[in-house]
């Protein structure tokens, strides 16, 4: 029997990959499942995006291999987007690298900078992929606490007490997933100073800035951030293009070049038509964000009612694509709680525990569910 690599012993199948099989099984048995677990936008991209990719299909020059760095006009679109939305100036020639979704960027960055045994600071709670990729490359996850009592922000006194001598990368993501905590420029300034002090590569994962958020921010707005920081961003949530797999990593040219060395050995460029669609998306005006947020606001109001129906306390300060809620007192297991709802009411909600131990006692609802379905979920109680 052919044995698998030892690195597979450090990871498990992604939670949603296995849990959705369970959901599909219930559906095959005739159960009407309302899926409030996944952050995959159910809304469509703009008509300009669809028209751009449709037109590109007929371009006779669009079917060959594409540049590893993407079309120059795509990089310029990304640079203009950051300038217009955040006031951040980036050189499109060497400070921006388009990605096939920002998730692959987590692997590329880790392969580019981590040696076996290096330490990585990972938020608890936080995106599970930070941990799995760290394990896959042979580095060591070191978790730092985020707690509601501290507005889901790092405790810098606690961070300074850690042994930071082997830390190479620190992952963060504001607006925060899963809680929706906004963060602030003051927090970003502290993080950049911390990274400079300890010679750490700071990486902000920033795909949720424009969903229900009246103050979008970028880590790169902080003076001197490029010296020690990268930012990942994505068109998945902002422009309803999750399946298109369009993301970007941004930072200084030297760091971006290191990531490119990895990426250029792992794919052969993004499809031309998708790049053309992405360019159209990045040129959307503010009315796009306003219309999307009208929809998400109505969904959030209904989802808050569902959470209250369950006796949960919603984190009202949260922004982004999810509702984070604290379970009623006396509930010992978030996973047991959501499983009972799945099997009794046929509603799938995400347990906070999949994001780390500090997620125990919390659940997360996705806003990627039509209003009538959220109302149906409420009615089932």
Automatic annotation (TrEMBL):
Entries under Gene3D superfamilies matching the protein: Aspartate Aminotransferase, domain 1, Type I PLP-dependent aspartate aminotransferase-like (Major domain)
Keyword Cell inner membrane found: no
Span of the signal peptide: none
UniProt superkingdom: Bacteria
Annotated ranges, domain Aminotransferase class I/classII large: 32-381
Protein keywords: Aminotransferase, Transferase
EC number in record: 2.6.1.-
Pfam families (UniProt xref): Aminotran_1_2 (PF00155)
InterPro entries xref list: Aminotransferase_I/II_large, LL-DAP_aminotransferase, NHTrfase_class1_PyrdxlP-BS, PyrdxlP-dep_Trfase, PyrdxlP-dep_Trfase_major, PyrdxlP-dep_Trfase_small
PROSITE patterns: AA_TRANSFER_CLASS_1
Keyword Cell cycle: no
GO molecular function: pyridoxal phosphate binding; transaminase activity
Cofactor(s) required, per the database record: pyridoxal 5'-phosphate
Transmembrane stretches, start-end: none
Family the UniProt entry places it in: Belongs to the class-I pyridoxal-phosphate-dependent aminotransferase family.
Name assigned to this protein: Aminotransferase
UniProt lineage: Bacteria, Pseudomonadati, Bacteroidota, Flavobacteriia, Flavobacteriales
């Amino acid at each position: 029997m052919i044995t698998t690599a030892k690195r597979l012993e450090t990871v498990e199948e992604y939670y949603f990959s296995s849990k959705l099989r369970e959901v599909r099984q219930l559906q095959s048995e005739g159960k009407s499942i309302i899926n409030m677990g996944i952050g995959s936008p159910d809304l469509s991209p703009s008509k300009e995006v669809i028209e751009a990719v449709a037109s590109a299909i007929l371009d006779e020059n669009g079917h060959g291999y594409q540049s590893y760095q993407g079309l120059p006009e795509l990089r310029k679109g990304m640079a203009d987007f950051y300038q217009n939305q955040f006031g951040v100036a980036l050189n499109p020639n060497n400070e921006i690298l388009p990605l096939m979704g920002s998730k692959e960027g987590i692997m590329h960055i880790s392969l580019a900078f981590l040696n076996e045994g290096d330490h990585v600071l990972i938020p608890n709670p936080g995106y599970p992929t930070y941990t799995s990729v760290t394990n896959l490359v042979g580095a060591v996850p070191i978790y730092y606490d985020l707690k509601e009592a501290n507005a889901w922000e790092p405790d810098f006194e606690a961070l300074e007490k850690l042994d930071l001598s082997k830390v190479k990368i620190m992952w963060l993501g504001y607006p925060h997933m899963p809680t929706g905590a906004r963060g602030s420029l003051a927090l970003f300034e502290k993080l950049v100073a911390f990274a400079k002090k300890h010679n750490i590569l700071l990486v902000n994962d920033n795909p949720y800035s424009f969903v229900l958020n009246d103050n979008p921010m970028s880590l790169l707005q902080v003076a001197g951030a490029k010296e020690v920081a990268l930012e990942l961003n994505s068109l998945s949530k902002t422009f309803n293009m999750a399946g298109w797999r369009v993301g970007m990593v941004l930072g200084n040219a030297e760091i971006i070049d290191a990531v490119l060395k990895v990426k250029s050995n792992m794919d052969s460029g993004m499809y031309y038509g998708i790049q053309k669609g992405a360019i159209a998306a990045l040129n959307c005006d503010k009315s796009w964000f306003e219309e999307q947020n009208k929809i998400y606001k109505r969904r959030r109001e209904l989802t808050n009612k569902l959470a209250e129906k369950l006796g949960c306390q919603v984190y009202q300060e949260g922004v982004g694509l999810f509702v984070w809620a604290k379970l009623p007192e006396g509930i010992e297991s978030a996973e047991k709680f959501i499983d009972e709802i799945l099997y009794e009411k046929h509603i799938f909600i995400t347990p906070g525990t999949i994001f780390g131990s500090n997620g125990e006692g919390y659940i997360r609802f996705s806003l990627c569910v039509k209003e009538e379905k959220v109302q149906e979920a409420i009615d089932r109680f």
